Amino acid sequence: MSVKAFKLISAVEQEMLMGDKNYINIECIECCGKNLYIGTNDCFIYHFLLDEKVSTAGIITFAATKQLHKYLGLKKPVSELKAASALTRLLVLCDNTITLVNMINLEPVPTGARIKGAVTFTLNENPVSGDPFCVEVCIISVKRRTIQMFMVFEDRVQIVKEVFTPEQPCAVAVDGYYLCLALTTQYIILNYNTGISQDLFPYCSEEKRPIVKRIGRQEFLLAGPGGLGMFATVDGISQRAPVHWSENVIGAALCFPYVVALDDEFITVHSMLDQQQKQTLPFKEGHILQDFEGKVIVATNKGVYILVPLPLEKQIQDLLASHRVEEALVLAKGARRNIPKEKFQV
């Protein structure tokens, strides 16, 4: 039985981004506050401002206003974008090079600071340096079986550590000194400070796309064998039961108390509280699903959509109205920290 947990709302439509140029595809997205950045296959970055509007009837819509777009001068797609708002910098991966650009005018930093030889990269959201004017970046290097850690400042970059892995890494998430890695045949946790690693479980990256996602302090969400979404801590244990995904999940995101997954045809919503599938939204041709500061965004090659969660109180009332008291209680107790105290008492 389903719960209406999310509503899918269009944010950027095809015409706004590409007009009648059908060859343009969305490769990656980044959202930071109201700023939405889109990287395309023809080497452009687009910057939009997202404005959330709520009607008197409580209906939410998004208005995206285009600020500017910038050509990076290569014939390659922009493959990843990450915002470092404390530095007002956008980290842009294109043609195996990470460039630093200004978040406002999209101009490269004057010093030309860049990181070369990156296949993919991620930011450490639980940094170890303690310097507020620096972000820690972890890259999978073009050098075989190599991970590199960098400190990125406003106008310079500095390599901190190079770590070798037992097999070729293909996906990574970071928490403090811990790297959660998808290798060719398995997932592992690796402490890059001590060099100690721990095997999690086997996985064949050649058959399916691995998913490695940091979901909280010292905890990760992984696409496991048999279509399972598995949780793992840095100690290599699982403190939550897995959720049952479809076999071909492309992306996953967390919006407490739900885990949202994207496959070729659907967006599915599972509860972390009882592992049950709560909602299915038809969504064709999706290839990106990410959460940014609690905002869940999905994209096709041509458009960007936002999954807006319905208020938890409303979800609880709907469950009670359909006589699903047990589920309503599980949701109310599990989501207690997200519900105002007086509403929780009711």
UniProtKB/TrEMBL annotation:
The record ties this protein, via InterPro entries, to: CNH_dom (IPR001180), Vam6/VPS39/TRAP1 (IPR032914)
Gene Ontology BP, a term: endosomal vesicle fusion
Query: Do the record's keywords include Cytoplasm?
Result: yes
Question: What is the organism field in this record?
Answer: Picathartes gymnocephalus (White-necked rockfowl)
Which key words are in the record?
Answer: Cytoplasm, Protein transport, Transport
Mind telling me which GO cellular component terms the entry cites? cytoplasm; membrane
Where is the protein situated, by its record's location annotation? Cytoplasm
Gene encoding this polypeptide? Tgfbrap1
Q: Which residues form a coiled coil?
A: none
Residues covered by the CNH domain: 23-296
Name of the protein: TGFA1 protein
